């Protein structure tokens, strides 16, 4: 994993963790449901941002090299599998 990808992903994951901890405290203290949902959506958004960072890094670092070699089919299938899981 590229350093910049790792750094960006960790930054976003820490943000998501902070949001998630806040959501947990809100549920424990029985805050207003809409406020909890808004914070939950922020967690999901932060995780999607991590996914995008990691996917972009993977495509740049691994897939572009595989497209010029014999692993082309395998690389394409890995990406398709990830997108199929994301849509479930």
Automatic annotation (TrEMBL):
GO BP term (any one): negative regulation of DNA-templated transcription
A Pfam cross-reference name: Trns_repr_metal
Keyword Cytoplasm: yes
GO terms assigned for molecular function: DNA binding; metal ion binding
Keywords, comma-separated and alphabetical: Cytoplasm, Metal-binding
InterPro entries: Metal_Tscrpt_repr, Metal_Tscrpt_repr_sf
Record localization: Cytoplasm
Superkingdom of origin organism: Bacteria
GO CC aspect terms: cytoplasm
Keyword Nuclease carried by entry: no
Assembly mode: Homodimer.
Name of the protein this chain belongs to: Copper-sensing transcriptional repressor CsoR
Organism: Candidatus Curtissbacteria bacterium RIFCSPHIGHO2_01_FULL_41_11
Lineage: Bacteria, Candidatus Curtissiibacteriota
